[in-house]
Amino acid sequence: MLSTGVKSLDELLGGGIAPEVLTQVYGSFATGKTTLAVQIGLLSDGKVAYVDTEGGFSPERLAQMAESRGLDPEEALQRFILFTPADFKEQRRTIGSLKKIVDKSFSLIVVDSITAHYRVEEQRKNLTAELGKQLQVLLWLARKHGIPVIVINQVHFDSRAERMKPVAEHTLGYRCKDILRLDKLNTPGLRVALLERHRFRPEGGMVYFRITEKGIEDALGGAD
Ligand SMILES: Nc1ncnc2c1ncn2[C@@H]1O[C@H](COP(=O)(O)OP(=O)(O)OP(=O)(O)O)[C@@H](O)[C@H]1O
Ligand SMILES: [Mg+2]
Predict the structure, then answer these.
(1) pLDDT at 223
(2) Residue 122 above 90 pLDDT?
(3) SS3 (DSSP) at 168
(4) What is the pLDDT of residues 154-199, one digit of tens each?
(5) Is 13 in contact with 19 (CB distance < 8 Å)?
(6) What does the alpha-carbon distance between residue 222 and residue 202 come to, in Å, rounded to a whole number?
């Protein structure tokens, strides 16, 4: 298991981010998805394969988070192996290439986000099947190397359900056994994480957290 660096969030997740499965983290913009994924990688002791499709990964932010935690920013930056596919087809190739790149020096794979390119090309034929295939490859990697894979997802407004829903909900839902939803609250910097699905924890549990210079921290400011 990899720690999120927030004790209450680790507990919500049954100990942390689990190896050998896909964990989906979804939510609206600026809810802390990227910060959470980067923090988990930062606190792990191996390399992180970070597939950034949105340009949301910031080396400055990673260095800032490392420094404010008393970690070496240079060392942290070197552990993050960044991939920036320009479209969905390139994303497929990037994920496929991870089969050759990822080895036992890696502790985590992040795809941030899996659906940014997908949404742009949504009307194309067989796109859902293609998304399914990418998820299969990620699951294979998670199992083969015994590491967690974090799949970040965006939301869209479902007018029939009259609420925000994850993009490609069913395609991702079948393959992501643990699902965490992040939401903003009225107080600036304050967020809530809701456990929407888990293999062995009850659904519906929630934890409040803050986004700070350090990354994400317990909302109560307690020990993390
Ligand atoms: N040094 C900092 N101190 C406090 N908050 C910060 C700091 N740096 C960034 N933030 C906040 O973090 C939030 C963005 O977090 P993050 O990028 O993780 O969100 P996200 O869910 O990935 O968003 P998106 O969907 O746009 O990618 C913003 O509200 C921003 O103000
Ligand atoms: Mg982001």
Answers:
(1) 46
(2) no
(3) coil
(4) 999 999 999 999 999 999 999 999 999 999 999 999 999 999 999 9
(5) no
(6) 24
Q: For 31-40, b where at least 16 C-beta lie within 10 A, e where not — what string?
A: bbbbbbbbbb
Best substitution site from 38, 211, 216 to test ligand 1's pocket, by max atoms within 8 Å of Cβ? 211
Q: Which ligand is nearest to the CA of 25?
A: 1
CA angle 201, 203, 206 (to 5 degrees): 100
Report the alpha-carbon distance of residue 173 to residue 73 in Å, rounded: 35
Q: Is 32 helix (H, G, I), strand (E, B) or coil?
A: coil
On the question of pLDDT at 104 being above 60, the answer is: yes
- C-alpha distances in angstroms, 180 versus 34, 75, 81, 151, 196? 13, 29, 24, 10, 6
The residue whose CA has the least distance to atom 14 of ligand 1 is 30
Domains of the chain: 7-218 (3.40.50.300)
